[in-house]
Design brief:
about 70 residues; coiled coil; mainly alpha
């Protein structure tokens, strides 16, 4: 997903180079750039949350295994 966003950023910069003469297109470009920035931030937050959830799952699995082992003794 990050690679796709990087490709979009690259394409937006290329588009910007070719559209700086047209104010309307430049405005659209600016809006798209802002939207992309917002989506990038959301993706970053989602990746952080996913990492936290994976860590919590790992801890819960360990606790479950410990309880299972204790229960079988």
């Amino acid at each position: 997903q990050l690679g796709a966003l990087q490709n979009q950023v690259t394409e937006l910069f290329r588009a910007r180079e070719t559209t700086t003469e047209n104010p309307k297109i430049l405005s659209v470009f600016q809006n798209l750039k802002e939207t992309l920035g917002e989506h990038s931030k959301q993706l970053e937050k989602s990746a952080e949350k996913l990492s936290q959830l994976k860590a919590e799952i790992f801890i819960l699995q360990d606790e479950n295994q410990a309880l299972h082992t204790t229960g079988n003794k």
